[in-house]
Design brief:
The chain is an alpha/beta fold and 198 residues long. Helix content is 43%, strand content 13%. It has two domains: 49 residues, Orthogonal Bundle (Helicase, Ruva Protein, domain 3); 119 residues, Dna Topoisomerase Vi A Subunit, Chain: A, domain 2 (3-Layer(aba) Sandwich). The chain has a four-stranded parallel sheet. Helix 1 crosses helix 2. The longest helix is centred in the N-terminal third of the chain and has 17 residues.
């Protein structure tokens, strides 16, 4: 095999979810693409990597100091949805059901991986709330053990703001799931968050 092709496969397979076979297919597709399109792609990736910033308000990815979501006056600035990563923010935005602001933690507390609360942007969140004007904080954190640890930690930190309503996204059984295959933690959350059938 060509060493050049092997090098591209090696680099592409470093991406999450891309195995060697997919990397090979992508490499061959790049080879078939117009040279200017490949050059545009590599320039975009390089520029993204060099110029992307973090919003100083919410820690979202941005081209400027403040991201478009935080700068949007039409959004509900009294509600903050706390997420782990930018990908979570994008998932929620894609639903077009939420019109408040966000706060990106940058991960979850994980002692096993050496990630402490100080490694996340929790203090930035607390500072935002302390400035006033926030009425609700929605915790949209994963249901993993680390996510639950982070949720518990955040709830304790947010107790210093009794005027702020702290909520969590609903957790429970997914549509089409069978009860016998659902883990105990998910079942516990589903029972605790049950609602009346209308």
């Amino acid at each position: 095999m060509s060493q050049l092709l092997n090098n591209v496969i090696e680099e592409l397979s470093k991406l999450p979810g891309i195995g060697r076979r997919t990397a090979l297919r992508l490499s061959m597709h790049l080879l078939r693409m117009d040279a200017s399109a490949v050059a545009d792609m590599t320039r975009s990736i390089d520029r993204f990597r060099q110029e992307i910033r973090r919003c100083r308000v919410c820690n979202n990815l941005s081209d400027d100091e403040i991201c478009p979501i935080c700068a949007d006056e039409k959004r509900d600035h009294a509600t903050i949805c706390v997420v782990e990563q930018v990908a979570d923010l994008l998932s929620i935005e894609h639903t077009q059901q939420y019109r408040g602001l966000y706060h990106v933690l940058g991960g979850v507390i994980s002692p096993m991986q050496g990630i402490a609360p100080s490694d996340l942007t929790i203090d930035l969140l607390i500072d935002r709330i302390a400035e006033g004007g926030v009425k609700e904080v929605i915790l949209a954190i994963s249901t993993s053990v680390e996510g639950e640890t982070t949720l518990f930690y955040l709830m304790n930190r947010l107790r210093e703001f009794p005027e702020v309503k702290v909520t969590s996204i609903a957790r429970g059984i997914g549509f089409g799931d069978e009860l016998e295959y659902v883990d105990e933690l998910t079942l516990t959350h589903a029972l605790a968050n049950r609602r009346a059938i209308e």
